[in-house]
């Protein structure tokens, strides 16, 4: 009798996810619990997170575990604290989903002195991933999935490492002509380069890294940047996907067996595609990793 090889599925697996209280993260969380996954939600707002946990347990009919962990993804101290809590509570992590993201139209700095879009979109997932990496490796078969964006293609020459704090992009007149948007693109490019270098470092461990483009999605993204930003997003809404459609590739990456032999890929619409030329720069990926290590101490 031929023994059937067990295929990958999220059923019964434990998944840590950031950015699950709204948008594609919320749509993803709902679909994952429907498929039998257990979730650990990292959120900033206690009330929202608790409401979501109750909602998800109802979706699964009480059959899945939904844990809540609180953290500010712009604060390195907060991320270190939540990682300790997760490692203390969770003996096994099968999948880590780095989905939280933001864009700031005016230059702000995190409590660690990092430009805020960079702190949330890149350094947050970089630090969280490295802190949880050994637990993922202990599993022997795990995945790390990061939400990137088509917006990385706005960055034509790659990340400006000489202006890593984006002071130029937020200075006059660049900030009036798309500087903050370019900065967002840099962070999404960083997500792809991070995935590339992470995959390289994970070879032979059983843990794989993947990232994806959800497409233009109608969510509450960019609503923190004033009236003009809200009007812009409202104008784009008729051309945008629903959060559920935007979440399809993320759910697929978490649940499919088709990528079990792949590592470091960039996906859109459930297909592996090539990102921009700067996103394929292996030297830039290595340099980004080294700079990120310095920035998180």
Features:
single chain, 297 residues, alpha/beta, Rossmann fold, eight-stranded mixed beta sheet, 8 strands, 42% helix, 13% strand, SDR_fam, NAD(P)-bd_dom_sf
Number of helices: 9
Write the element-wise H/E pattern from the N-terminal end onward: EHEHEHEHEHEHHHEEH
Architecture per CATH nomenclature, i.e. the level-2 architecture: 3-Layer(aba) Sandwich
| Strand residue content | 5-15%
Biggest β-sheet: strands ordered side by side in the sheet: 3-2-1-4-5-6-7-8
Unreliable runs:
227-236
Which secondary-structure class do the elements indicate?
alpha/beta
Q: What's the CATH topology name?
A: Rossmann fold
Helix content: 40-55%
| Count of discrete structural domains | 1
Radius of gyration (CA) equals 18 Å
Average pLDDT figure: 92
Strand element count = 8
Cα(first) to Cα(last) distance is 54 Å
The biggest beta sheet reads: 8 strands, mixed
Taken from the alpha-carbon principal axes, the silhouette is globular
């Amino acid at each position: 009798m031929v023994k059937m090889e067990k295929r990958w599925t999220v059923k019964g697996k434990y998944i840590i996810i950031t950015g699950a209280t709204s948008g594609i993260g919320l749509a993803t969380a709902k679909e994952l619990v429907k498929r039998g996954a257990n979730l650990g939600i990292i959120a900033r707002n206690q009330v929202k997170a608790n409401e979501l946990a109750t909602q998800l347990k109802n979706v699964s009919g009480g059959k899945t575990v939904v844990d809540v962990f609180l953290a500010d993804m712009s604060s390195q101290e907060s991320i270190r604290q939540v990682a300790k809590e997760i490692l203390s509570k969770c003996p096994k992590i099968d999948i880590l989903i780095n989905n939280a993201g933001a864009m700031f139209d005016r230059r702000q700095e995190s409590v660690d002195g990092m430009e805020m879009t960079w702190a949330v979109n890149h350094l947050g997932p970089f630090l969280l991933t490295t802190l949880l990496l050994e637990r993922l490796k202990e599993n022997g078969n795990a995945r790390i999935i990061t939400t990137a964006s088509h917006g990385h293609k706005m960055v034509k020459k790659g990340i400006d490492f000489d202006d890593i704090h984006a002071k130029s992009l937020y200075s006059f007149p660049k900030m009036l002509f798309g500087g903050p948007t370019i900065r967002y693109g840099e962070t999404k490019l960083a997500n792809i380069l991070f995935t590339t270098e992470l995959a390289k470092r994970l070879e032979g461990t059983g843990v794989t890294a993947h990232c994806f483009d959800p497409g233009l999605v109608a969510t509450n993204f960019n609503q923190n940047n004033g009236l003009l930003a809200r009007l812009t997003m409202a104008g784009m809404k008729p051309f945008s996907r629903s959060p559920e459609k935007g979440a399809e590739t993320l759910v697929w990456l978490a649940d499919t067996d088709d990528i079990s032999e792949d590592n470091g890929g960039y996906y859109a619409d459930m297909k592996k595609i090539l990102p921009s030329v700067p996103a394929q720069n292996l030297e830039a990926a290595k340099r980004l990793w080294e700079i990120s290590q310095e920035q998180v101490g």
